[in-house]
Amino acid sequence: MSRPLADRTNLVTSREEHWKPPTYAARAGAVAAVRARLLRFFDLQSGTIWADLARELPAVTGTVVDVGCGLQPFRRLFGDGVKYIGIDYADTRATFAVQAPDTIYYSGDRWPLESETADFILCTETLEHVLDSRVFLSEVFRCLKPGGRVIFTVPFAARWHFIPYDYWRPTPSALEHLLRSAGLVDIGVYGRGNQLTVACYKGMGFVFSLLSPQPSNVAFEWLCRAVGAAGVPAMVALAMLANLTMGWQGAVDFLGFTVTARRPA
Fold it and tell me: What percent of the residues of the chain are helix, what percent strand, and what percent coil, each to the nearest 5?
């Protein structure tokens, strides 16, 4: 007999995550470089985003605006000749516990930039946290110079994160509609990963959840950790399989999307 809905958790009441992944940030030094590589190997979302941006950002020139920049993890992928501007919401410091020293923090819907400032806008894993994406995209259009380009990354198969400030999982159809409605053209939506990557990602997430169980009773928590520890070799094998097959073209299921567009000249 199935349980009535009232016996299950009402997710509207959720206000935080029990476990958060390590923050992804650019750090100097050999140890930090190894840590970043390991994080990209196991965190398939970060790994696929890095792989896509590493192909695109080195060729960017002019004024760059990194919107929702967080700890600016992709800043070093740009060439030395760019003028980099990082902006983020003022409440990011309290909501997401993220702060970078040379970021411009702002409140409200309007970005702290003059119109037609940017030759290039980067927006990574931010749209899903924006309640009014139409207003946000109108600012993208306003701040881009005519002919300027923008790259977004958005999650698709990713778990609910930064609860309760995670709102959307747009499909390619929705992304194309939103960007075209904002006046952007030459829109491209490219899948990151494939069905196998997503399956590996979910399997690895299950092992992580066992290693960090929800508080209930001590015996059950330690049982989960023991089962999770036994699953670590399987998690490593899934990570290896996912990284080896990440280049396969997906069809209907993806970790997320890398989206390109430009403002008409």
Answer: 40, 20, 40
pLDDT in tens, 143-202: 999 999 999 999 999 988 888 889 999 999 999 999 999 999 999 999 999 999 999 999
Helix (H, G, I), strand (E, B) or coil at 198: helix
- Sheet with 103-106: list strands edge to edge: 103-106, 83-89, 63-67, 118-124, 144-155, 256-262, 185-192
- Domains of the chain: residue spans and CATH: 24-193+250-262 (3.40.50.150), 196-242 (no CATH)
CB 117 within 8 A of CB 110: no
Structure tokens of 1? 């007999």
Q: Closest Cα partner for 183 from 62, 68, 265, 60? A: 265
Q: What is the pTM of this model?
A: 0.90
Task: Report the C-alpha gap between 127 and 170 in whole angstroms.
Answer: 9
